[in-house]
Write a structure and sequence with these properties.
This protein is of the alpha+beta class. Helix content is 48%, strand content 11%. It folds into three domains: 64 residues, Winged helix-like DNA-binding domain superfamily/Winged helix DNA-binding domain (Arc Repressor Mutant, subunit A, Orthogonal Bundle); 81 residues, Winged helix-like DNA-binding domain superfamily/Winged helix DNA-binding domain (Arc Repressor Mutant, subunit A, Orthogonal Bundle); 119 residues, no CATH class. The strands form three sheets. Strands 5-6-8-7 form a four-stranded antiparallel sheet, with helices on one face. A two-stranded antiparallel ribbon has the order 1-2. Strands 3-4 form a two-stranded antiparallel ribbon.
Length: 289
């Protein structure tokens, strides 16, 4: 989630009880049209809705927490704005600058700027391993909001139906499942039939934006799903697809594939299929193991 300074100021105004668009525009020295645009974004994010010219907070834990924070601590606006929330959610678990960069795909300078702002108001602290995290002793409500925000972001997205399950997403792409037939690219286990591995699945796996996917992308999508679901069947399907096209996947490194390689050397790994089980399943699809 990325909120602008204007959007956060609108939330702050509503938190103070100023809910008329015209009054908010005057207080923030913005035009009515700018406030309406901000309202549309904030409505999509689930913070508030427009009712006869009034901006009303939506009734949810997620929405209530940010109104409480902004009404008590308006200096959080500079920290939250633009990429701030993304960085803060990343450091719910302690991370180094390099780890934050890998997690958020943001520039080092952007991260340093927000870390500096956060440390100046004691919202961010650094441990003895030089990793940054939320200072929950001073800001317990901040951690609570960020955890709720992260949970919501991981389970909902305006690009897909509400009853979907999300496995991976960023601003450019999203991997999800849904039991309905949708206008999206079929991927992961739903795509295996094209490569000679026909599976009977209770749901469809999709990717957006629509594009032609390579076998490497299909494997990675399958790994995302198996990693989140921790489902024995999905791990078996990943293993079969990986083994069938093993020579084409030399550039892909992941703990699941490392464990599959160990299984192929007759090692037993808890929660994973055995070599004999893979041989039995592989024989159904002419996959030699």
């Amino acid at each position: 989630m990325k909120l602008s300074q204007t959007e956060l100021r609108v939330l702050e105004q509503v938190a103070y009880g100023n809910d008329r668009v015209e009054d908010i525009a005057q207080n923030l020295h913005r035009s009515n049209s700018q406030i309406y645009r901000a309202q549309q974004s904030l409505s999509e994010y689930g913070f508030l809705h427009l009712n006869n010219g009034n901006l009303e907070p939506k009734k949810s834990t997620y929405s209530s927490l940010i109104f409480i924070l902004l009404s008590r601590y308006p200096n959080l606006i500079e920290l939250f704005s633009d990429s701030g929330l993304k960085i803060l959610m990343s450091i719910l678990k302690p991370k180094s600058i390099n780890e934050i960069m890998r997690d958020t795909k943001l520039k080092r300078s952007t991260i340093y700027k927000k870390i500096r702002i956060g440390r100046n108001i004691s919202a961010i602290t650094m441990n003895n391993k030089h990793k940054f995290t939320i200072n929950e002793k001073i800001w317990p409500n901040l951690r609570e909001y960020l955890e709720e925000n992260k949970r919501l972001e991981e389970t909902t997205d305006s690009r897909i139906p509400a009853n979907s399950i999300i496995y991976h997403k960023n601003e450019d792409e999203i991997l999800f499942s849904n039991k309905s037939e949708l206008k999206a690219t079929i991927t992961a286990f739903s795509k295996y039939e094209k490569y000679g591995i026909k599976l009977f699945l209770p749901t469809h796996f999709y990717y957006l934006p629509t594009k032609e996917l390579s076998k490497e992308e299909i494997l990675l999508h399958s790994i995302y799903i198996a990693d989140k679901e921790k489902d024995y069947r999905y791990l078996t399907y990943v293993a079969l697809f990986y083994i069938k096209f093993r020579n084409e996947f030399t550039k892909i490194k992941h703990p699941i594939l490392i464990k599959i390689e160990r299984i192929l050397k007759c090692k037993k790994i808890e929660g994973y299929p055995t070599i004999n089980e893979l041989k039995e399943k592989g024989s159904l699809y002419d996959i030699r193991i």
